[in-house]
Amino acid sequence: MSLLLLLLWFTTAQQQPSPPAANDPGVIKGVVVDPDGKPVEGAQVYVQGDNDPPTSRPDTATTKANGEFVLDHVTPRKVKVHAYKDSDYYTDVVFAFNLSPKWVMPEVEVKPGQTVTGVKVQLMQKAGRLHLNVFDVDTKELVHGIFVQLCREDNPIYCFTASGPPEFENSIPVGVGISIKVSADSHGQSDYQWQYHDPRTNSPYFRARSGETETMNIYVPKK
User: Fold this and answer.
1) How far from 146 is each of 57, 129, 184, 196, 204, CA to CA, in Å?
2) Average pLDDT over residues 69-79
3) Reported pTM
């Protein structure tokens, strides 16, 4: 009898799952919604730990038609869950220039082998978009080799810079003024300089409208 009980105990012990190891990954399940609470399909979702570099994205997922996502293989730790969808102007908020003044993202603690459910990520208000066409004021021809610098009014160190062809387009956060500077090189010299001023208010800051593209035809004089 005692042998039978010992055998039963041994069999039961063998069937018990081992406790998760400290480095066993966890899982995060949830949904991404727009500012009105409607599910968003095709949004990119990823986690960022407090100590990760800003561009570190070890765990990523794409939302389904119902807005649901599953992030698996999440390293156990406290993480923030980010989501964005550039094609609809819901821009990547990890980069400081894109931050909305009212940005809020959920923070969850993932334990080894644990599945965290019910996480809701609400996208911030849609960004605007700025499209620039840069022309020579005299020849009316497109100016090639332009350099664009966009900086936030609330924190001027948060800037976006780009160089390239005379047609430029980029997402612009709403709720904050943005300075716009354009220059261009000709034969290795900065021959063109232009800075935005609102013609109605003379403000040096451009303000984007949510979900709308503003097109500016810029005619720049040579210095």
Assistant:
1) 31, 18, 4, 15, 20
2) 91
3) 0.77
